Every structure is written in structure tokens, then in C-alpha cells.
Amino acid sequence: MLKFTRYNDYEKFQTDVLPFLEKHEAENNLPIGVLNSLTEESTIYLMATISKGEEIVIVLLQTHPKQIILSKPPKMADDDIAEIAELIKEQVEDIPGLIGQRDFTEKVVKMINNPHFSVHMNQRLYILTSIKKVADHNGELRLVKMQDLSVIKQWLYLFCEEIGEKISQEESEEKAIELIQRARLYAWVNEDKLVTMASVSRPTKNNICISYVFTPIENRKKGFASNCVSALSQLMLDKGYKTTSLYTDLDNPTSNKIYMEIGYEPIMDSILYRK
To answer: Taking every annotated instance into account, which residue ranges of this chain make up the domain N-acetyltransferase (predicted)?
Structure first.
């Protein structure tokens, strides 16, 4: 018999679920990173666990209006997955979407049997422990500064448009300012010009995620993105992280190939369903 437990206190939730999530730190970098960033002012739609006896088997966390994060699942029988799907269906009044390990999430969505769900993003999670392909000398990595805002806010707008997460120009400027102020955003600079950007996010005890990798069309196919990600990954390792991780779009074989050449190795496929 599985049990669904809903939380209202994020500090209690964090205390209860972090030890479980950190058993698979890289695979759970999304829920851990989101969880570590929560404050009393954060918008939190759902915090819950599904347990078998005294053991947590799934953590559910929703801070995004369109999706609930599912933690990496343990190996389990289809009967247990069916029970998990039924519990989610019963306990969550309106399921906007689900993101998690692909095979498990596909089964849960199929068992929930909502005809409005469709695949929004099909991704692969990679992890890196050491660099295989170092950045060459066609530029250098540097921290993005507020003086770069006019370029970066437009790149963020275009990046979100490309991945199907459209935002307004105002939202892209707000996000750019936030990333710059938090010293999370880096750029590859060639001949004194910004040509590619990448960000770091969701730091955990041993891992940090590379995200917002974007190169404008006119700068593509010149090796800039590869150099930027390689140099930024090495910088994070130098700062003391044991690993870096990133998500790729499985429908983009070029980016998957580039990241594997740098030294990233696949550890989990992830899928996002939304209505």
C-alpha cells in the first residue's frame, strides 16, 4: 500500500526529502535545485511524497504553473506505478503536466489517461566529471556584466522562443538582470564581441547544471558553443564541483554530439508532458 503525503511547510518538506533526493544527486538536480531555492515568498503549488511503508519512493514538487517535477524513481513493478498514477490522479485536483524520468513518466501519464497530455519536451540528462575536449583559442570565457544587458536580454528571449517557452521582452530583461546580478551568466567572447552565452544553475553538494546555452544564428557552426560549454564546465570543476550536468533536446543530434565530445555522458532520459 502506497501513501500520498502533502506538505504545507517547505522547510519540513526539504528536511524530509533531501536525503532521499541526494541518493541520486545528478539525476535529481532539478528537484534539488528548485527545492534549495525556495523561500517563504516562493510560489509553491505542490509539495508531496509517495511512500511505501516508511520509505519514500517518489517526490513531487510543483513551482511552475505548467508542470509537476517527479523525482528519479526506483525500480518498481507496473502495479506500483499504476497505484502511483491513481494516487496522483486522486490527490492532485488539476494535473497541468509532469516532468521526470522518461519510462516512468510515460507509464504514469498513460495510466492517468488524460487525452489532453502531449509531449512538450524530450530530453537527455548528461553528466561530466572531466573535460575531454578543452576550449581552443578562438576566444575566451568571461562573466556577463550589466553593460551586456541589451544583447543578453534579446538572446534570452530568442532562446526561450526556440525551446517553446515563450516569454515577453520584459520578462527576458528581468531574467537577464537576475542572472547577471547573481553572477550566473557567462559568455564566450571572440574579437571583443559576445558570440555565445551559457549559465550555471541549481547547485547541489557536488553538481551544478549548465543551462541557457545559446548562440545566435549568425555565430553558429563556428565552435563557439562548444568552447563556451567546455570552458564553463572546467571553471565549475575548478571551483570545486565534482560534476557538471546539462539537459539536451533529443531531437537535436548536433548538440548531443557536441556535448559528448566535450566529455558529457548520458545518465537519464527525461520527458515533459503538458496539456
So the answer is: 139-275
